[in-house]
């Protein structure tokens, strides 16, 4: 089943596990950590059985999981997300 994500601007797109892996890699995780975390988020999305999910709920789950792996990366990710909301 494809899961849909409602973005902040109201647009809808398919959930993309690769996008999660890319952003957490940019935040400082290595490739293996990023793939593991992205898979965990994808499983969570699937388990919620909610479609569409908001990008905010997914972002919050990413932060929660990042904190368990690398607090510095979690802080960097949150900082970046805050800069996007101010634009």
Q: Which quaternary structure do these chains form?
A: single chain
Supply the CATH class.
Mainly Alpha
CATH architectural name? Orthogonal Bundle
CATH topology group: Ribonucleotide Reductase Protein R1, domain 1
How much is the average pLDDT? 90
Give a short synopsis of this structure.
This protein has helices at 17-27, 31-48, 55-69, 71-85; strands at 4-6, 12-14, 53-54.
Give a description of the structure:
With 87 residues, the chain is mainly alpha-helical. It has one domain: Ribonucleotide Reductase Protein R1, domain 1 (Orthogonal Bundle). Helix content is 68%, strand content 9%. The protein has a 3-stranded mixed beta sheet. A hairpin with a 5-residue loop joins strand 1 and strand 2. Helix 1 packs across helix 4 and helix 3 runs antiparallel to helix 4. It is globular and about 30 Å long. The chain starts with a strand and ends with a helix.
List the helices and strands and how they pair.
Blueprint: E1 4-6, E2 12-14, H1 17-27, H2 31-48, E3 53-54, H3 55-69, H4 71-85
Parallel strand pairs: 1-3
Antiparallel strand pairs: 1-2
């Amino acid at each position: 089943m494809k899961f849909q994500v409602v973005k902040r601007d109201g647009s809808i797109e398919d959930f993309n596990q690769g996008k999660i892996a890319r952003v957490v890699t940019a935040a400082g995780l290595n490739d293996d950590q990023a793939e593991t975390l992205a898979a965990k988020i994808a499983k969570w999305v699937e388990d919620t059985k909610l479609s569409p999910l908001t990008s905010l709920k997914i972002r919050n789950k990413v932060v929660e999981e990042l904190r368990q792996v690398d607090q510095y990366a979690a802080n960097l990710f949150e900082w970046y997300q805050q800069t996007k909301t101010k634009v």
